[in-house]
Amino acid sequence: MPPTFPITFDDIEASARRALDRLQSATEAISGIRAEHSDPDELVTVVVSGTGELLDLRISDDAMRKAPEALASLIVETAGAAAGSAFGSLGDQVRAFTDSSSSDPGPLGAIRFGDGPA
Length: 118
Fold this sequence. Notes:
Elements: H1 9-31, E1 34-38, E2 44-49, E3 54-59, H2 68-102
Antiparallel strand pairs: 1-2, 2-3
């Protein structure tokens, strides 16, 4: 008689599907992250993605009157603040993904310790 196992293929498949669903949800959430930041005078506004990619840069007419070095510095500072916010959101999404992953027992959750033969 072949041996019996406490974990079935269906258990493994269900666990893999849950893991894939969690990964897809996290990927969608991460790809949807957008952070917008403006300097206090609203001369420069920057929008970045969750990975810090520059998506939009708006420079007011008043900002164009600044010295080139001052404008460059303002753009870099504003972009850095936007990226910091985006990375915070990214961290939140990664934390949520790992929390949901660690709360899923996987196929081992099908094992009922103490229910089998001695």
